[in-house]
Amino acid sequence: MSILKYLSARRSQLCAARNYPNVLGFSSFHTTPNSSIELHTQDEEVVIALGSNVGDRLHNFKEALKLMRKSGIHITRHASLYETAPAYVTDQPRFLNSAVRAVTKLGPHELLSALKRIEKDMGRTDGIRYGPRPIDLDILFYGKFKVRSDILTVPHERIWERPFVMAPLMDLLGTAVDSDTVASWHSFSGHSGGLTALWEKLGGESLIGEEGMYRVMPVANGLLDWSGRTLVMGILNLTPDSFSDGGNFQSVKSAVSQARLMISEGADIIDIGAQSTRPMASRISVEEELGRLIPVLEAVMAIPEVEGKLISVDTFYSEVALEAVRKGAHLINDVSAGKLDANMFKVMAELDVPYVAMHMRGDPCTMQDIENLKYDNVCKDISSELYSRVREAEMSGIPAWRIIMDPGIGFSKKTEDNLEVLMGIPDIREEISKRSLAISHAPILIGPSRKRFLGEICSHPSAVERDPATIASVTAGVLCGANIVRVHNVKDNLDAVKLCDAILKQKSSPMKFKQ
């Protein structure tokens, strides 16, 4: 399976060490399961770790999250997804691990009972300690409280020694402390620099890809590890009016031929679009878009060359997304990040495929209006606006481990803004990391291919003359941290991507000195 390269090179430590006081208004108590502390009426923020290594691990996660919601546990944030080697008892299958932040009115022992009931309902039995299990749910934090009883210890006593727990826990935080509760969690670590310093002491980001632990995205019945290389997404436009190749691939035969060509040239993903999103494009109906899309999608899915490749559908309609996934599409690419269809997030939460959320102001008809081109700070504003869309998606049930971000080159941006985005990918990640490390870890897709700003810079009014400029922009973007590049010319851009990956790999290798 293709591997996505995580290229967010740190130019500086994301979070400077902070001094967290030992006491920040939290309460510590020793209690029994039936003590009065269970008489809760206010919401408490909690962190719950998830693990699974038996059966369909992803299905187990989804089922556990659904049962948690039904039990009065309102999930607000998801960590990234990790595949990890088993600890303690090593002769067993690999685990999936993650964690969630949630709010609940359940008292700590009520919460424990609810989680144990979910584990039992999902088939967990009393077996070997640390042995195989379909689902494992542990309370890591409960509000600002420390809990000690015969059956419950919070914070979980072995958090600090387990990278497979610490990695998802850190994902649920931002580099900025956003509440007294989070400050308390940092204080519980017992380290003057809080959880951040403790994570760095364990090895931090250097552990990802090492020690048997990989950050992954579920797609096409597999797990995509983006630590290996940059993915190339080939563009297949079925529209009569796209700015570059409109009308070239309207027949099923010509579209399939183009898909075959791009696959033969090395495309990892084919992105099929049946609605033009060029500036001032007229919007077509759901029915017309499906009429263009489905025959081609079915034909492309049927060719043997597509084995091992990913098929994406470019749409902002939830009904099109739903039908496309039913026909076999592996991911959905939405230029509006849910703004042009109020049902998109709800539908995507049920579809269990990756979702590309792109930054755009307005719609294709209004995105280049003067008001939509005003930025105080391009990368900071894009980060804020894109993060707000992703947070809404997450609150609707799309976990962070299924999110891909696109800063929207060419959408609601002037030429100089597009250049800022290309060079500012590390800044976008860093800005988002202040609020959520999980979202900042998400793959970033860029799509500069043949766009007008390249023509303006290089004096090429014709889109098909902009391939050399596209290669240059792709090179800049990948070297700055892009993980997926969406292009018309797969062959030449793949060469550029391979060179960039080699440069980045060389740069990250330990220095070798002659004796």
Number of strands: 18
Number of helical stretches of at least 4 residues: 16
Residues in helix, %: 25-40%
Instruction: Detail the poorly predicted runs.
Output: 1-25, 33-37, 511-515
Computed over alpha carbons, the radius of gyration is 24 Å
Protein name: Pterin-binding domain-containing protein
GO molecular function: 2-amino-4-hydroxy-6-hydroxymethyldihydropteridine diphosphokinase activity; ATP binding; dihydropteroate synthase activity; kinase activity; metal ion binding
Pfam families: HPPK, Pterin_bind
InterPro entries: DHP_synth-like (IPR045031), DHP_synth_dom (IPR006390), Dihydropteroate_synth-like_sf (IPR011005), Hppk (IPR000550), Hppk_sf (IPR035907), Pterin-binding_dom (IPR000489)
Describe the secondary-structure layout.
Layout: E1 27-30, E2 44-52, H1 57-70, E3 73-78, E4 81-84, E5 95-104, H2 108-121, E6 136-142, E7 145-148, E8 153-154, H3 163-171, H4 180-188, H5 194-202, E9 213-219, E10 222-225, E11 231-237, H6 252-264, E12 269-273, H7 286-302, E13 310-314, H8 318-326, E14 331-334, H9 344-351, E15 355-358, H10 378-395, E16 403-406, H11 415-423, H12 425-433, H13 437-440, E17 445-446, H14 452-458, H15 467-479, E18 484-487, H16 490-508
Parallel strand pairs: 1-7, 11-12, 11-18, 12-13, 13-14, 14-15, 15-16, 17-18
Antiparallel strand pairs: 2-5, 2-6, 3-5, 4-5, 4-9, 7-8, 9-10
Give a verbal description of the structure:
- Helix 8 runs parallel beside helix 9 and helix 15 (467-479) runs parallel beside helix 16 (490-508).
- The longest helix has 19 residues, at 490-508.
- By secondary structure, the protein is an alpha/beta fold.
- Strand 11 (231-237), helix 6 (252-264) and strand 12 (269-273) form a beta-alpha-beta unit.
- The chain has an 8-stranded parallel β-sheet with strand order 16-15-14-13-12-11-18-17. Strands 2, 3, 4, 5, 6, 9 and 10 form a 7-stranded antiparallel β-sheet that branches.
- It has helices at residues 57-70, 108-121, 163-171, 180-188, 194-202, 252-264, 286-302, 318-326, 344-351, 378-395, 415-423, 425-433, 437-440, 452-458, 467-479, 490-508; strands spanning 27-30, 44-52, 73-78, 81-84, 95-104, 136-142, 145-148, 153-154, 213-219, 222-225, 231-237, 269-273, 310-314, 331-334, 355-358, 403-406, 445-446, 484-487.
- The chain has 16 helices and 18 strands.
- It is globular and about 75 Å long.
